[in-house]
Structure prediction request, 550 residues.
Amino acid sequence: MSETAAALRCRGWRQETILRLLENNLSIAEDPDNLVVYAAHAKVARDHESLRRIVGALTTIQDGHTLVVQSGKPIAVLPTGPRAPVVLLANSNLVGRWATPEVFYDLERRNLIAWGGLTAGCWQYIGSQGVLQGTYETFAQVAREHFGGSLRGRLVVSAGLGGMGAAQPVAITRMLGGVSLIAEADAEKARRRQEEGVVDACFGDLDVALDLALAARSGDATAPHAIAYAGNGAALLEGLLARGITPDVVTDLTAAHDLRSGYLPIGVGPAQAAELRRGDPGKLEALALQTMARHVRAMLQLREQGAVVFDYGNNIRPHAAGAGVTDALDIDIFTARYLRPLFSRGIGPFRWICVSGEDDDLDAIDEICAELFADIPRIADWISLAGAHVRRQGLPARIAWLGHGERTRLARAVNQAVADGRLHGPVAFTRDHMDSGSMTHPNIITEAMADGSDAVSDWPLLNALLNTASGADLVALHAGGGGYAGYSQSSGMTVVATGTDDGAARLQGALNVDTAIGVLRHADAGYPQAIESARQHGLGLGVVSTDERA
Ligand SMILES: NC(=O)c1ccc[n+]([C@@H]2O[C@H](COP(=O)([O-])OP(=O)(O)OC[C@H]3O[C@@H](n4cnc5c(N)ncnc54)[C@H](O)[C@@H]3O)[C@@H](O)[C@H]2O)c1
Prediction:
């Protein structure tokens, strides 16, 4: 074992692993001085004193005891039992009627609450890899559903090359072989994306951008396949319509959820928008809404002409509907259309983090994956693409969308590799909160559930209870905070491959129930894939799942 891998500061590797995950979140945080990991104020702890006391508790806590954290503030270490988690957290939960941004901000001002985002407050964030794979998985599912599994020779048009949007050309073109044409209204940012190699070329002239995109679609290998149009997304779609071009896929990843600072109206550049934001924000919002209405009308028209069109979770449809586009909500939301069939089988954003800090460990787990899942291209393809395209951020980590049975299979193999000394240290397994059964968000993840149960948040609560009952090392219950207060309820879990029998039992127990409840949530809502998956795995009333067939 290397020196870092071996430096145990806590009473055991379960505790040490969780401490290293907390430190890892701070090491890749956007604003570590203020403990903010991402999204303006998603924090790892309430304040510096709380952080100090959490670290202190993690270094002294023994097995059989649990550290209790309330909105980023440590409350106690209590005796719990042999299979109890090391840490239990509840972050930013408010009861229904009080779950508003105003109440949240007032409590935050009085230092009574903190928002943990989804993965920041429970120390599960692994950097931008999650966004890349979410984007890859969505477009891979689009390819599977509409184009026989490939985006080769397909033109995908979108807008926004920001933090999340920049993953689009990488997923569409570099990973799935399609042609991507993405509008970015901030010309300087569009050019920067070219310098970074995110896109191959950037044009301010719409006709040039369109000609080259069409050449690439028709197989001209000399034409750039990842193209930025330095201009407005609505203008790009209107340009396509004017020239009678129907792309294969259309979506949008401008930050349209935020009328004031996320979406630029046609004819308004970033500098002018900044001026309006200061001087006349109402006018800026009205102009943004007008352009959004044009943008969504063009999306609807392109859909009529045969393009596959979906909303990518940025709220552009509801805004356009509010601005008079009465059929805006006819456009599918990506979660219901593309991710729900995966969630129905418990397939979602699973991750592992090598707390040894050794890149070799990540490579070794990639190899284990390649071996275990050689016959599942959904997994095998991603693992080799991730190896080639994902840059390291913080501790070596990998995300891969694994399903029910697949997660326990991998975790058992990794635990064995830790036991055999093939890995330099323990490995933490965790997942995004936005997973199969662990989140209710009626505008994104649970929109348009088949049985209309969009707003029911019993599921993430049950998910957390099950994780706690079956051996997880950390369990968190989160609700939306700040501007998101009242919008979501979610739960997170982490379990550690320590290479011991205890670790093996915890991994098997906690990861099995974690996806089981996801499959069952979707089966209960009536999704046929979930009913079939529950039947295959023996999940449901009267059957105790052993996951042995997995
Ligand atoms: N699909 C998902 O899973 C998911 C997850 C998280 C966030 N989101 C949403 O995705 C959206 C984008 O997120 P981000 O982090 O990339 O935001 P960001 O603010 O980093 O980037 C948005 C980009 O859009 C550009 N832009 C704004 N208006 C434009 C227009 N009319 N035409 C062309 N370009 C325009 C901006 O210049 C900016 O570069 C947000 O609304 C976010 O809430 C989706």
Notes: DSSP finds 19 helices and 18 strands in the chain. Residues 281-304 form the longest helix (24 residues). The domain at 129-326 is CATH 3.40.50.10730 (Rossmann fold). The CA atoms of residues 480 and 488 lie 5 Å apart.
